[in-house]
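Contributing new complexes? Match this layout with calcium ion.
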Amino acid sequence: MLLGMPTVLLVEDDHALRDVVARALREEGLTVVTATDGHTALASATEQTAAVVLDIGLPDADGRDVCLALRARGVRAPVLFLTAKDAVHERLAGFAAGGDDYLTKPFHISELMARLRVLLRRSESTSTSTRSGLVLDPSLHALSRAGQTMPLSPTEFRLLAALLGRPDEVVRRRELLRAGWPDGAIVHENTLDQYIARVRRKLQQVGATDRLETVRGVGYRAVSS
Ligand code: CA
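Output block (do not edit by hand):
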């Protein structure tokens, strides 16, 4: 349950657009927290965050990676992506990254408000607990824990975020292929296993208690011990 005013985290690097959207949200009685890049967005998500309006083209990171990192940290608030692109694969990748809706620029502010209202109604619990102390940084594509940092490739980052975002759940191979290679590249099935093996080694290297279990023939599951 949310207490007090729902807070919307607005992440947009375009000053003019950010001001227009922020004003419209405040006129609706919402509390608005703004961020202009992915790094600040991650730091700004709190338990009060009821929804996130997230630009995909940020100066330091892809908004979809920011969304994955938020999910991996346990942020469950619905995410409405803003993007200048309208390609079909972009849409699919947006949803694979854990986004809830998608708006293509330019858009009318009333359309954004209508969609956001739907998402806010759907928004339930919004905790931001950091699962077992692991932090995924979408701008550096890095994994860190207790002061130890390990760089990840963009694909490793996306795979790990997809798994950590759904703890204890089996994520199917097909979903992982889509998450890891959002631009629709055709990759050999074995490639996925090789990437998972690399991510496992990196988890061990930062002393993570999270493990990626193989569910034979189905997919993988992130468990914490
Ligand atoms: Ca932008």
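Reviewers usually confirm one structural detail per submission. For this one: The domain at 7-121 is CATH 3.40.50.2300 (Rossmann fold).
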